[in-house]
Automatic annotation (TrEMBL):
Protein name: Ubiquitin-like protease family profile domain-containing protein
Species: Populus deltoides (Eastern poplar)
Location(s), subcellular: Nucleus
Any one Gene Ontology BP term: proteolysis
Entry keyword set: Hydrolase, Nucleus, Protease, Transcription, Transcription regulation
UniProt region (SAW), positions on chain: 300-381
Listed GO CC annotations: nucleus
Location of the region described as Disordered in the Swiss-Prot/TrEMBL record: 405-432
Family of the protein in this entry: Belongs to the peptidase C48 family. Belongs to the GRAS family.
Biased composition (Low complexity): 405-428
Pfam families documented for this protein: GRAS, Peptidase_C48
Top-rank taxon: Eukaryota
LXXLL motif, short sequence motif: residues: 218-222
PROSITE patterns: GRAS, ULP_PROTEASE
Length: 714
């Protein structure tokens, strides 16, 4: 784990890591000796920030060992006299406010009479008033006539006079604006308090804009089982126009204590170093107290008491998509003023959301969501399909609406069967009987089920009249960035599917190539369909599984260690598989890795026909993870003998179709070890993959259709 830690050459940091490891192993006597060593080394540490952060983590370790925890659930303000607090917000607060502010302005374009802003936040009250003043008095010309502000936050002072004064000052700010203003404060000092406060929220009328914003609070609900699901379900029923979530981009929600300790140290050291550049008297003191309390909670507490459970943007996306929320992209070019004032920071987009970085390390992210209605919802898009799809293809009149005002419903009746041939089967029971009879016939007559001719026939199967009509309709429809298709669990937005309908010309300018690319959501969905097909026809196909596209990206980038990656893999789903598919995107180019579990072969399928020694570092890292981590837990011995192989495969002749090649490589490997296709098949494959994902299943094999025809004499 030590490779995670910046400045690992510092003897003080090394001792701290050794001490945490000793405590994790239960060797408290050795840990006590290391505490003494750290005291001696602390005086020699020249980096003031490193020394401070080590001190805070050492304090947290001591609290963990002795079971001593802070008495207050949140750090209190240093003063209860509001008028004496001259507060200059930190860069983190500026970022949180600006990302929220732009989203609110967009929503206010909807003309309604009432606005209800619900804020669940841990920011200090003086920043709350500053933000409210900016919002009410400066430039929000679309303000409704009535404005209710509900604040759900912890008590930041034990002094009741403090809270009364804060209410008075907020009301005073509101009175300077021409709106009917109401203020409601709900204090929530624990996770159950937050949940109860949210469950009490109600919509007063349909003529009301509701905006919910979570600022550094939503992650705390992960401490209580079921709390996140319950709260998101309530908010979905509340139907807010948008829900803004600002969270720390960290990864410490794990029961593995040493991993949590090491990754948290890296994160908080980067965070303290960034804040050191813009320290002011009050904000610096308040944030330092708050982060010190966070460190104590992350390190010293367990169970429901450990409420600082930060997760990455990718993980929150999965949770929110699963709760049926749609993502609303935020554009990072809105932060020019912020970057001018805080030049040490950078803002990068991740899946359409801005992430604040310092020295290349992500610190916090802002994201915007809205609940889906009954007919559409936005799905997981790890590869940022919005960016992928912003290009315009003049050859295909597909347009994108700014925001969805119509549900994604195909303008036709939905049939229970896609092909005319199987419709002769009258019931699901008949389907099962036919499949059983056909499976027996295949096993008895042909042990090597799929011939090259059969695979080619499958790949080249023509479109039915019904399929052709669907393709024609989709080429002229408007796109809404909502999930399309019958199987919503595939989570593929219609904008991502639309890239498959765009057929690139033989000579495509580089600047126009992006509109034809397929993104992660398409790739992952197709591999899900491969697995579902095998499960439906287990006697036709050898068992296959796949890893999501992000797995190797996280491993190769160093974001996850090999141990961390293994802990996130569902071993039960992979156990017993014959072929494990791993789609990988390297430098904007898709490559397929296939691990043949029966032959213990590592297949590297690169449609660019790269030299055998290309990507040596990536191959070595992935092989090491497979041999030393994955295969042993699957029960394989001598896994170090995994052989690197290259097959005789077709290659692409343009710079665009690598994603299509990867999907069809896997499709062929699921049948046999032959690849009877070329670049000339790509236009047909694009449309076929589109139909497969839209329908939520791969085509019925032509040989099975012939069997049904013979069975029923049709």
């Amino acid at each position: 784990m030590c490779q995670l830690i910046p400045g690992m050459g510092s003897p003080l940091v090394i001792k701290l890591m050794d001490c945490a490891k000793a405590i994790a192993d239960g060797d408290l006597k050795f840990a006590d000796q290391l505490f003494s060593d750290m005291e001696a080394l602390s005086a020699a540490e020249t980096n003031r920030v490193t020394k401070k952060v080590v001190e805070y983590f050492a304090e947290a370790l001591a609290r963990r060992v002795h079971g001593v925890h802070p008495r207050n659930p949140f750090p209190l303000l240093p003063s209860s006299n509001l008028k004496k607090i001259s507060y200059e917000p930190s860069p983190l607060e500026w970022f949180a406010c600006m990302s929220t502010d732009y989203a609110i302005r967009d929503v206010l374009n909807v003309k309604k009479k009432k606005l209800h802003l619900i804020e669940i936040s841990s920011l200090v009250d003086c920043w709350q008033r500053h933000s409210l003043e900016e919002y009410l008095l400066h430039g929000h010309h679309g303000m409704p006539l009535s404005f209710q502000y509900t604040s759900i936050r912890p008590k930041l002072s034990k002094n009741d006079d403090y809270h009364q004064e804060n209410r008075r000052m907020i009301t005073e700010v509101a009175q300077r604006s021409p709106v009917d203003f109401k203020y409601r404060a709900l204090f929530a000092d624990s996770v159950p308090d937050i949940v109860e406060s949210v469950l009490r929220l109600e919509r007063t009328s349909e003529d009301e804009i509701i905006i919910v914003r979570w600022v550094f609070q939503l992650h705390k609900l992960l401490a209580l089982e079921g709390a996140v699901d319950k709260v998101l379900s309530k908010l979905k029923d509340l139907k807010p126009d948008i829900m803004v979530i600002v969270e720390q981009e960290a990864d410490n929600n794990t029961d593995d204590f040493f991993y949590r300790f090491a990754s948290s140290f890296k994160y908080y050291l980067n965070l303290f170093e960034s804040l050191e550049l813009y320290a002011t008297s009050v904000s610096s003191l308040i944030w330092e107290r708050h982060l010190r309390w966070q460190i104590c909670n992350v390190v010293a507490s367990e169970g429901i008491d450990r409420i600082e459970r930060h997760e990455t943007l990718a993980r929150w996306q999965q949770r929110l998509y699963g709760a049926r929320f749609c993502s609303v992209s935020l554009c990072s070019d809105q932060f020019a003023d912020f970057l001018y004032d805080f030049s040490a920071y950078k803002i990068e987009e991740n899946s359409g959301f801005p992430v604040l970085l310092a020295a290349g390390h992500p610190l916090i992210f802002a994201s915007v969501w809205k609940p889906a209605n009954a007919t559409h919802f936005s799905g997981e898009n790890i590869g940022n399909s919005d960016d992928t799809m912003r290009g315009t293809d003049l050859n295909h009149p597909i347009t994108i609406l700014e925001e969805s005002t119509s549900p994604v419903v195909e303008p036709e009746s939905v049939s229970s069967s896609e092909f005319a041939e199987p419709e002769v089967v009258s019931s699901s029971e008949s389907d099962d009987d036919n499949e059983y009879a056909y499976n027996i016939k295949r096993r008895l007559t042909n042990g090597n089920i799929w011939s090259v001719e059969e695979v080619r026939e499958y790949l080249d199967s023509p479109f039915t009249e019904k399929e052709s009509k669907r393709l024609s309709r989709w080429k002229s429809r408007k796109l809404t960035r909502n999930v399309a298709g019958r199987d919503k669990q595939l989570n593929v937005p219609d904008t991502s599917l639309a890239s498959l309908l765009r057929i690139p010309p033989s000579s495509t300018p580089i600047l126009e190539e992006k509109q034809y690319y397929v993104d992660d959501s398409v790739i992952n969905a197709f591999f899900d369909l491969l697995k579902k097909r095998q499960e439906k026809f287990p006697d036709w196909y050898k068992r296959n599984s796949s890893l999501p596209t992000w797995t190797m990206t996280f491993l190769l980038s160093g974001k996850w260690t090999m141990t961390k990656l293994l802990s996130c893999i569902n071993i039960e789903e992979i156990a017993g598989t014959a072929k494990l598919f791993i789609p990988l995107c390297l430098e904007n180019h898709w490559i397929l890795i296939c691990v043949d579990m029966e032959k213990l072969e590592f297949l590297w399928l690169d449609s660019l026909n790269s030299p055998l020694d290309a990507h040596h570092t990536e191959k070595t890292t992935i092989l090491e993870w497979l041999e030393k981590h994955l295969l042993p837990v699957l029960g394989y011995r001598n896994s170090q003998q995994l052989k690197l192989m290259q097959l005789n495969i077709p290659y692409q002749t343009n710079r665009i179709d690598c994603g299509i090649f990867v999907m069809k490589y896997a499709d062929c490997l699921a049948h046999c070890d032959h690849f009877p296709f070329t670049q000339q098949d790509m236009p047909h494959f694009r449309l076929r993959v589109f139909l497969d994902i839209y329908r939520g299943r791969l085509p019925v094999p032509p040989s099975y259709v012939r069997f049904l025809r013979a069975l029923y004499n049709i």
